[in-house]
Design goal:
The complex is a heterodimer of chains A (about 170) and B (about 100).
Chain A (H helix, E strand, L loop, with lengths): L6 E6 H20 L7 H4 L10 H34 L6 E2 L5 E2 L8 E6 L1 H22 L12 H21 L2
Antiparallel strand pairs in A: 1-4, 2-3
Helix pairs in contact in A: 1-3, 3-4, 4-5
Chain B lengths: L1 H20 L5 E6 L6 H12 L3 H14 L1 E7 L1 H14 L2 E6 L3
Antiparallel strand pairs in B: 1-2, 1-3
Helix pairs in contact in B: 2-3
Classes of the chains: A mainly alpha (about 170), B alpha+beta (about 100).
């Protein structure tokens, strides 16, 4: 089932910049959290493996937490690396007079093409899924009906879901 | 004396039966429903990690979705712990338990 072909992702430069920002925030969150238990969003990434046996759950976490969290970091790094051609601009965005971001070279709505080899696609899938878990925790999403159309953070959450779903379909050959 | 020689073999047989009829229950890896992970992603994970067919992966995903959880693997505890860690690595919520009697 492992995809053996490269997936070509197309997204706008604005999306690429936005996504890179989210992934960096995710990485900073992991860096700033000493113990996963200190933050419910990080704790969700290393859930209890034993429902009715707190001691076994603690032991399991002691053995797996560091591997799971370093995987989140390496996935984040892989996503940033693949976005680099799209976000590293020789003429970086500058603040215009109105404080708006001005792009001197091209349009932020230009489509950028990002080839993802099979290993990198898997890193993207895991990273997008993990960032959605963190966002969901921050947004207090406890059921599928928890949604606030007025809250732009839900827009970000939905957009990540849309991108994740697209990648899953691409690797599944749908 | 007569009664004990009669009863002992029975006792032995009962013990043997007892051991034979309750082999150590296997352990299970259980995946739980959550409101965040996409159905398509869960199917992908089941196919990729366990090597399940598309149909089986979808069936299990729907069981997770509608029943709240599904047993995705059964076997020795160490193996179930590896599976649970792998599920956590994908962002799925999995637990390990002894198979219910």
């Amino acid at each position: 089932m492992t995809p053996d072909r490269t997936v070509v992702l197309e997204l706008t430069r604005l999306e690429a910049l936005h996504l890179a920002g989210l992934v960096r925030q995710f990485d900073e969150l992991l860096d700033s959290t000493e113990q996963a238990a200190d933050d419910p969003a990080v704790a969700r990434l290393v859930p209890d493996a034993y429902e009715e046996d707190p001691d076994a759950a603690r032991e399991f976490r002691a053995v797996t937490e560091s591997d799971l969290l370093s995987r989140r970091r390496s996935d984040a790094a892989a996503v940033i690396e693949s976005l680099r051609p799209a976000i590293d601009d020789p003429h970086p965005l500058e603040e215009g007079e109105e404080g708006d971001l001005v792009d001197e070279t091209g349009d932020l709505t230009d489509t950028v093409t990002i080839p993802l080899d099979p290993e990198t696609v898997n890193a993207w899938l895991r990273a997008l899924a993990a960032i959605r878990l963190v966002l969901a925790s921050r947004l207090g999403i406890r059921s599928e009906d928890d949604h606030d159309d007025e809250d732009p953070r839900f827009g970000v959450y939905d957009w990540l879901g849309y991108r994740l779903d697209g990648l899953v379909r691409a690797v599944s050959g749908d | 004396m007569a009664s004990s020689t009669l009863s002992l073999p029975d006792l032995d047989r009962d013990l043997d039966l007892d051991i034979a009829s309750t082999p150590d229950r296997p352990w299970q890896t259980v995946v739980w429903n959550d409101p965040v992970n996409l159905m398509s992603y869960v199917v992908h994970v089941f196919q990729e990690y366990f090597g399940f067919s598309r149909a089986k992966a979808e069936r299990l995903m729907l069981a997770v979705h509608h029943e709240g959880h599904a047993v995705v693997a059964e076997g020795p505890r160490e193996q179930m712990e590896l599976h649970a860690q792998a599920m956590h690595d994908y962002g799925l919520w999995a637990t390990i338990r002894k198979a219910p009697e």
